[in-house]
Amino acid sequence: MKKLNWKKAIGYALLLWVIMFVVVSILIAFKWYDGSGLMAWVVAAVGGVVSLILAGYLRPATAGAAFGYGAAFVVIGVVLDAIITTRFNAEIFRSVPLWVSYALVLLAPLLRIRKSTPPVL
């Protein structure tokens, strides 16, 4: 059984957070995002999709590994949001779409579990 690769988990979690921070920053710069309304839900869905794509590179072998990658993504995201994002938006953790995006990010790697091929007879 292949174990979770913590270096990759942390690296991809950091990459996910940076991608989402840049995406939201661009949307804010163009005044398309204010943290509420439909765009907040679109950003939540984008976070789930980006997590799904990154989890494809990790190729978790088991549900446990997939859940571990998702948990790493969420923990690192929450910590970085607490340290960095709260400087720009002190009320970020009151956002329901943010918590939905964390749930999507947690579960997305479960859709990327490597399928075992049956033995050829």
Write up this protein.
By secondary structure, this protein is mainly alpha-helical. The chain has one domain. Helix content is 65%, strand content 0%. It is built from four helices and no strands. The chain has helices at 6-29, 37-58, 63-83, 96-107. α1 (6-29) runs antiparallel to α2 (37-58), α2 packs parallel to α4 (96-107) and α3 (63-83) packs antiparallel against α4 (96-107). The longest helix has 24 residues, at 6-29.
Question: Helices and strands in order, then pairings?
Answer:
Layout lengths: L5 H24 L7 H22 L4 H21 L12 H12 L14
Sum up the structure in keywords.
121 residues, mainly alpha, 4 helices, transmembrane helix, membrane, transmembrane
In short:
The protein has 121 residues and is mainly alpha-helical.
Could you say which overall geometry the principal axes of the C-alpha atoms support?
elongated
Report the helical percentage: 55-70%
Order of helices and strands: HHHH
Task: Give the oligomer, counting copies of the same chain as homo and different chains as hetero.
Answer: single chain
Overall domain count:
1
If helices are DSSP runs of H or I spanning 4 or more residues, what is the number of helices? 4
Overall structural class, as computed from helix and strand content, comes to mainly alpha
Beta-strand fraction estimate? under 5%
Strand segment count: 0
Low-confidence stretches: none
Question: What value does the average pLDDT take?
Answer: 92
Largest sheet: none
Radius of gyration: 16 Å
Ends distance: 23 Å
